[in-house]
User: Fold this.
Amino acid sequence: MIVDFRVFVGQSFDGTRQTVGDLVHGLDSLSLDRALVCPFKPLSYNLDEANAQLAAAIRPYPDRLLGAARIDPWQPDAPASLRRGIEMLGLRALYLNPWEEHFPADLERLDSLMEVAQAHRVPVLVAAGYPWLSAAAQVCALARRWASVPVVMSNGGQINISGLGQAGAALALAQAPNLHFDSAGVYRQDFIEECVRDFGAERVLLGSGSPYFDPRLEIKRILWAKVSESERCLMLGENAARLLQW
Amino acid sequence: MIIDSHAHIDAAGYWVDPPEILLPLMDEAGVDMAIVMTYRDADGPGHPATRYVVDAVNRYPDRLIGYVRLNPQSPGALEAVDEALGQYRLKGVKLHPISYVGFPYGEATLQVMRRAAEFSAPVLFHTGDEALALPQEVAEAARLCPETIVIMGHMGGYFHCQAAIQAALELPNVMLDTSAMPYPALICRAVEAIGAERVLYASDGPGCVPMLEVEKVRLAGLSCRDETLVLGENIQRLLAGVRHDR
Assistant:
């Protein structure tokens, strides 16, 4: 089973869009079985609305698509929004985007959301690697405060084409056993292979970041990685299934 | 023929990648030759990093072509260029402003660029999403040295590809390399905007796996002719003009 742990559906304020039909067609064309779907930040900036629309859009595909609740921690009713997303909309992960919602990934205010995630046993996916806001060290600090909550950094915890984010991402993985990462756009494929060797394949998930990244390329980061077949299976889907209890 | 215009070898530093790591990955990807440079910056003539490249090229003359990577702010920088391009017959200069912490448009860098132009040798700049390596900053250097062929490595990185394309649109002496940036669609956009003749396939291997990097170019969906240019003919044509005397 292959699971793409991070895709987007809807229309972003930046004009990027993907319909659920486009997504499912893309999954089929690459023989991907399932995906965790996050909402874009819409032009209205209303994430509650985006979560509800996402839940409705993926409802016809219960065997293929699960949704993540995107929450802005600055909103006073953020914990209630997350509870509503999980309990009423059936969403199964918390998605935090420090870059677009503009908060540091180790913000103390996130604790009320982490408490909800912990109570409902849902993983937390963090848009990572953004300067000042979501460096791996910042995501790590959040993960360490909530050691029983699985936290997944996008993009290998780094968006840095000099490779200068790699040591920090590796240090974060060493310091927080509940920290994982998705593979979208990761600089240097040997970083993925070294993380599998040093921290275990259980910490790495295929995540394409579609449509921002090209899933035709992103899946090959995992398919062509020089790892054992059992490690590849973990990265391709078994880890996602475990974290999402799917 | 496929020629990788940007790959690395080195014996010391954060990444240790002897040529024997790169060569089988080139074979796996069907890459005939690769331009190699160290991760370290030489600070003058006789530097071990430059010697390492020269030795590798001498050992694998049918597979490897060498660039000298140096710190243009070091007192011996111009002598290092003369030695590398004149005496050792290397084919170009690599500059990584984040590595040596220097402005691309600083006078020392401009002098090195002008010296490279006297050999008709290209200057490959690391470009990306951080200060000192933004395409806009490297473009200023290219504007001040119109006689120098400037290659923007990584095509601007994750978030500055459009800026790199714009720089190449405005400056005829700018070319783009495709290494490590994760967007096949932007390779297509670059070719449409500035012509296939100014886009170079590159991997930034061995960490960025050549097979994946070749696949990225193929996923761009270029015409057969354009793909041939990008994958090898362009860099072959460019390097054919390099002289080894001033």
Summary: The interface with chain A takes residues 14-15, 96, 98-99, 126, 128-130, 133, 154, 157-159, 180-185, 204, 206-209, 211-212, 215-216, 219 of chain B (CB under 8 Å). The domain at 3-240 of chain B is CATH 3.20.20.140 (TIM Barrel). Chain B has one domain: 3-240. The radius of gyration of chain B is 16 Å.
